[in-house]
Amino acid sequence: MIVPFLVLALGMASEPEPTVEELLRGTDDLTRGSQSTGRAEMHVKTRRYERTVVMDMWSKGTDRTLVRIVSPARDAGITTLKVEDNLWNYLPRTDRTVRVPAGMMSGSWMGSHVTNDDLVNDSRLSEDYTYTVKERPEGDDGRWVIELSPTESAAVVWGKVVATLGADRLPREIRYYDGRDALVRTMTWSDVKDFGDRRIPSRFRVQPADQPEEFTEFRYLKLDFETPVPDRTFSLQSLKR
Fold it and tell me: pTM above 0.90?
């Protein structure tokens, strides 16, 4: 997402108000360009345990992603590859590559509140939902509140999504509801930083509604949208590297 750059001190006119489609596309592509590399820290807190995992990430487009665990040592080398709707895990302790079957797609990824299905689901707010604008920003401290309902043809699990964005076009919160209008989980974004020519939130948190004391939080340590990512990165052979 390209944040509007206003130079009012020089007498330039402010940028026109974005369309809702532009806002939703920006949210869809927040940390993803045509290609990207990065490192992130994932902190998971549940009633039973608390752990932190550091991972390296590569992506290309919306259908290819590779994630490799760097630490802790007991998990280092565990790698997940997504190619279109397919997902594989490489387990270095047993030197096995396992394809994740359909029946396990709702399972937790690395013990977090992110599911395997989250990793492969390429649904987009800007394409798979119709929208109603509930609130528009008034001034720099205002916000956009957009309520989204899935289209009839969309392969999504949510009955409703409510997205809140700041006047700067950056997402602040997205709430996901089931078909009975019950809140299932909330994603929040914070700690805006510059990564190259992009200014984006460097943290986001996933919190289940039925377990308010639990959460999974990601913190981006590095993001690079310029360095080329070879196609061979997203192969089964690359899982073991």
Answer: no
